Amino acid sequence: MAHDLNPLQQMIKNQLIARGIKDEAVLEAMQRVKRHLFVSETDRLQAYGDFPLPIGHNQTISQPYMVAVMTERLRLRQGEGTVLEVGTGSGYQTAILAEIASEVVTVERISALSNKARQRLTGLGYNNIRYIVGDGALGCPEYAPYDAIVVTAAAAHVPRLLVEQLRDDGRLVMPVGGASSQTLQVLTRVANDVHCQDIVNCVFVPLISETI
Ligand code: SAH
């Protein structure tokens, strides 16, 4: 029917707006980035479903709602700021961040995933993203300090080096907890102090690092 919403519009309405996502910049970015371009051919029909999907190497593209909550909590302003993302994965969240922030630095430990994401995002015309292969628990001091940091893999605690690379009033969002479930936390750096807030329960793949 002509008035039916397409799967992307349904996702925005039923999964994001209905659950309280309000930030216009986030909703508009999620409208512009086509999630089906970030999953395998065989998963395209489910690309706008309310769940993560496999992207190879035992990793997943995050659930759309999680991408939206995390991005909203970074409190980015359209066209401003530098964001560090740990866990490039498919590059889907990287694209959302690059739509909003002025610059994105994204770190991935699996070079095949990083290369694939770079190819995909370059093909889509993004030219404000730096791709780093390495251990994201170390952050990326070269481009620090960051206005915001998002970690898309879970660990028992937030790596100290990441907090150190936040600018004053910078925000860091990360799933913190055990292997089977975590709490999404937002840390805000205020001078040399850190304020922490729990947002929602979640399940992410583990951050794999020898340094934490
Ligand atoms: N935002 C991505 C999520 C991918 S899953 C997406 O939606 O596609 C998390 C990613 O974190 C995986 O690609 C995994 O390889 C990566 N990862 C795990 N530990 C890491 C580390 N120490 N440094 C960088 N990336 C890491």
Structure description:
- The protein is of the alpha/beta class and 212 residues long.
- The protein has a single domain, classed as Vaccinia Virus protein VP39 (Rossmann fold, 3-Layer(aba) Sandwich).
- 27% of the residues lie in helices and 28% in strands.
- It contains 6 helices and 9 strands, in the order ααββαβαβαββαβββ.
- It has helices at residues 7-17, 24-32, 64-73, 92-100, 111-123, 160-164; strands at 53-56, 59-61, 82-86, 103-108, 129-133, 146-151, 166-177, 182-190, 193-202.
- Strands 5-4-3-6-7-8-9 form a 7-stranded mixed beta sheet. Strands 1-2 form a two-stranded antiparallel sheet.
- Helix 2 (24-32) packs across helix 4 (92-100).
- It binds S-adenosyl-L-homocysteine.
- S-adenosyl-L-homocysteine is lined by residues 55, 59-62, 86-87, 89-90, 92-93, 107-110, 113, 135-137, 152-153, 205, 207-209.
| Ligand names | S-adenosyl-L-homocysteine
* SSE run: HHEEHEHEHEEHEEE
CATH class: Alpha Beta
Number of domains: 1
- For the termini, the CA-CA separation is 53 Å
Arithmetic mean of pLDDT: 97
CATH hierarchy: architecture: 3-Layer(aba) Sandwich
